[in-house]
């Protein structure tokens, strides 16, 4: 790998504008045969998404992936979404009980539109076996498999039947994988995304490390079809994390799925807890993301998201913020 860079090292180069208003630019994306308003999905983590947010996002045309940390609630969750005519999108792990869970869904004809296999090290026989198990029992569900950080992994999971792969090992805000293990795409997530996207024949979801709305456009430029985001979604009124007050200011709790707080024990901990500033309503952020992305599309010289894929870029090592700290 020669050119290694991350989000803050890149600037996209503007092309001639073809719209009279940014409102003409279309941020919608299609995944698994469904259209969504934004190429953005809140992380499937317990302090980011819950049932209420899932319903809100599905009702309002946004993609969502429910987390897998209350496994006993998943059947009722799918039933509830189906009773409202909404897309059901759940997560699974790879342990033994997940195999019977998939069989149960098939038996009850409770077929989720999307199933995400959510594992730290997705380039593994365990994930390949789970992809094959899902495809055998629920062939119409769209399977997202991850997480991975190499072209070999993308190819193997796609060949096993995954409909999309999720790229990002360790770039997350509450991730300590990079520190505890020495491995991952932390610090070069955008270059890893490009590397993986070149090998992919199916959609890629870029996961982790997004710190600004401009990073969404950069992810699209380097091959992502969708972007998974945790920290930018942690501080909302609706966010499931606890709200605390410190020195008259409100903060929301955000913890890693492999943190002690999630696991309830200090074993193989690869995540931490932090507090992010409270920032109002979820819809305000989604609206701002849409407007910013419309602006990105206009700078790309197009009307649709795909225009961003064709723009040139420069590498400006660690300098785009000119010393400004925005996160
Ligand atoms: N994107 C990222 O960078 C990371 C994300 N996470 C998140 O944390 C959560 C927990 O992940 P995870 O620990 O995989 O899930 P689980 O705790 O459900 O573990 C899944 C299975 O994989 C095994 N396993 C986990 N890590 C490894 C590894 N490095 N090598 C071999 N086997 C492994 C576990 O066994 P055993 O525990 O006995 O090894 C277990 O059998 C997920 O939501 C995941 O997305 C965690 C770390 C990194
Ligand atoms: N290494 C770890 N990564 C984790 C953990 N919990 C979640 N994650 C990953 O982070 C992203 C969100 O990243 P952000 O930069 O947008 O905040 C999430 O989607 C997971 O892939 C963890 O405990 N350890």
Automatic annotation (TrEMBL):
Amino acids binding NADP(+): 204-227
Keyword NADP: yes
SUPFAM superfamilies noted in UniProt: Inosine monophosphate dehydrogenase (IMPDH)
Swiss-Prot/TrEMBL catalytic activity: IMP + NH4(+) + NADP(+) = GMP + NADPH + 2 H(+)
NADP found in the keyword field: yes
Any GO MF annotation of the entry: GMP reductase activity
Top enzyme category: oxidoreductase
Catalytic activity, EC: 1.7.1.7
Active site, renumbered: 175
Keywords: NADP, Oxidoreductase
Stored PROSITE patterns: IMP_DH_GMP_RED
Residue ranges constituting the IMP dehydrogenase/GMP reductase domain according to the UniProt record: 6-310
InterPro entries documented for this protein: Aldolase_TIM (IPR013785), GMP_reductase (IPR050139), GuaC_type_2 (IPR005994), IMP_DH/GMP_Rdtase_CS (IPR015875), IMP_DH_GMPRt (IPR001093)
Assigned protein family: Belongs to the IMPDH/GMPR family. GuaC type 2 subfamily.
Biological role stated in the UniProt entry: Catalyzes the irreversible NADPH-dependent deamination of GMP to IMP. It functions in the conversion of nucleobase, nucleoside and nucleotide derivatives of G to A nucleotides, and in maintaining the intracellular balance of A and G nucleotides.
Protein name, entry field: GMP reductase
């Amino acid at each position: 790998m020669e050119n290694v860079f991350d989000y803050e090292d890149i600037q996209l180069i503007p092309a001639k504008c073809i719209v009279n208003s940014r409102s003409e630019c279309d941020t919608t994306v299609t995944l698994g045969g469904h259209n969504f308003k934004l190429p953005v999905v809140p992380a499937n983590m317990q302090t980011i998404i819950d049932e209420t947010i899932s319903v809100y996002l599905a009702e309002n045309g946004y993609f969502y992936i429910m987390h897998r940390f209350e496994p006993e609630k998943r059947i009722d969750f799918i039933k509830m979404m189906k009773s409202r005519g909404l897309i059901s999108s759940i997560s699974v792990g790879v342990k033994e009980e997940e195999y019977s869970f998939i069989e149960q869904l098939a038996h009850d004809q409770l077929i989720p539109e999307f199933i995400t296999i959510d594992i730290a090290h997705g380039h593994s026989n365990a994930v390949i076996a789970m992809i094959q198990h899902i495809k055998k029992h629920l062939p119409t569900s769209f399977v997202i498999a991850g997480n991975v950080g190499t072209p070999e992994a993308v190819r193997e999971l796609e060949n096993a039947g995954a409909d999309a792969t999720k790229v990002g090992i360790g770039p997350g805000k509450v991730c300590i994988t990079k520190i505890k293990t020495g491995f991952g795409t932390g610090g070069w997530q955008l270059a890893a995304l490009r590397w993986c996207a070149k090998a992919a024949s199916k959609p890629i979801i870029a996961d982790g490390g997004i710190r600004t709305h401009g990073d969404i456009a950069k992810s699209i430029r380097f091959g992502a079809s969708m972007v998974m985001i945790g920290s930018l979604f942690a501080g909302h009124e609706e966010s499931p994390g606890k709200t605390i007050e410190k020195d008259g200011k409100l903060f929301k709790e955000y913890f890693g799925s492999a943190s002690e707080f999630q696991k309830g024990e200090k074993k193989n901990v690869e995540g931490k807890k932090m507090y992010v500033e409270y920032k109002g309503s979820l819809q305000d952020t989604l609206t701002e993301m849409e407007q910013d992305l419309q602006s990105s599309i206009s700078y790309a010289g197009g009307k649709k998201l795909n225009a961003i894929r064709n723009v040139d870029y420069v590498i400006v090592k660690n300098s785009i913020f000119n010393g400004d700290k925005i996160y």
